[in-house]
Amino acid sequence: MRGKIIAVANMKGGVGKTTxxxxxxxxxxxxxxxxxxxxxxxxxxxxVIDFDAQSSASFCIAGDAHFTSMIQRGRTIDAYVQEELLxxxxxxxxxRVQNQxxxxxxxxxxxxxxxxxxxxxxxxxxRHLMVALNSQGFSLEDGERKVWDAMLPDLDSLRGQYDxxxxxxxxxxxxxxxxxxxxxxxxxxxxxxxxxxxxxxEMFVRTTWLDASSLPRPKRLPYVxxxxxxxxxxxxxxxxxxxxxxxxxxxxxxxxxKTRIPVSAHLxxxxxxxxxxxxxxxxxxxxxxEVIEPLVDELKGYLRDA
Amino acid sequence: xxxxxxxxxxxxxxxxxxxxxxxQILRLRMGKALERKVTDAEFYAxxxxxxxxxxxxRERGQGGKTFRTPPPPPPEPEEKPQRGRKGRSxxxxxxxxxxxxxxxxxxxxxLPRARxxxxxxxxxxxxxxxxERPDYVLVAVSGYRYLPGTHxxxxxxxxxxxxxxxxxxxxxxxxxxQQTDFAHFVWFLPMGSKHEDRLPAVETACRKHGIGLVLLxxxxxxxxxxxxxxxxxxxxxxxxxxxxxxxxxxxxNLAQITDLSGRLAA
Lengths: 306, 266
Prior knowledge:
The complex is a heterodimer of chains A (306) and B (266). Chain A is α/β, with parallel strands linked by helices.
């Protein structure tokens, strides 16, 4: 097995990154895995790594009590940065994984979703790491490269265990987010179709894809996924047309998903406190067939092309 | 979670107060705690000895449910002649509850031109069956001045002592709701009782099942009685309610219902 890495990212906050990660993780985990001929048929194994110190994805997927226990047991990306990357070698990424964490049911069983959570200490841990590397004589660029070199084997070993690995990237560009984007097979850039978000998208692409960096360039241009779309808002229609027009140019800076995530009160509620152990169809209702399944089909197509 | 065996895990995941959990959810919770899938075979193999030992009980419905058998309540003290605040037997609480139902609960329903019949049913009716007998039944007969017909509502009450009150009492009341319009759980729980910690679980169960919760705080001061949760009306078939009254109430009370219905309808 060599799992595919999907990073959901955008410098701008509030554009539906976490919602998209949770949705994709659950939808992918309900699909049959591409198993070999002699392997027992099974559903996909999905791992979510939360790179956002707001911990929204961790909270949504694990639930309050379990998330707290993961923090206590160092099953977080900040503990990994603070302990492993700073040289104390207390546990690689794979040892930080909490398996079987989802409470969403599908055909009588829990979806096979695993999680490396993120605690509030990530930003501080990242700064400590860079200061420590700097004190060892590494420049900013060399330090970033060193972290990249340290993380890549860990990410590779995770690819051997999971069919899909999803990164919920933090708003802004943090070190972990930067590494996540560059390690990913595909970057899903969620954005709302308004003028400010469109401007933010350009800045995001420029800083990560076009500007020089000590880290490898991302594998391919980002795929823009329109979120909170309202077809009856003129600005949304106008910005969407602009984005699609630019994606059709030869010198484009992004590609576009055809599926759009509509604004939905139900979707917003889905990530809040819910009934215990909801079913996948109960959780997403009509959005499962109308939006999520077409989105996953499209995503799988782009990943096949990669 | 520190558990040595699947058996320990099952016990640790169930509510100590006896609230049942569906087998599917229990198995999924075990999987989450162990970070792996738990098969049906593993689950039932671990549960079976606990059922045999009486540590767990099971219910039918929704693929089956499992619950932890609550520890037996401590033996009730001897009945004292005076109405003390604590350690009251169920029998000694019956008379104050009857007074409360007649004088406060019934009138508090604020039904038009209502009359109430209250009967101790703890020893009446067929003895067979588990949780078949409510401790009290209150029949409210009401009607409007001009609109035709009378309306009869039947309320069942399950009474528990201070030490005996727990979620199982709510389930007893739930059983009574199958034959009546409303079911209530009455718990003698003096203020500051050490058993107050069971109250949240009891309240949750009452809300979940639409059972009314009445807290009898002081039998000498019935005005302190609290209706914590209002009961939800059941859509019980009238034929079932009618049969229930027929086998539970005395001939005098049945005649009184007939008489009141006739008078209010006139």
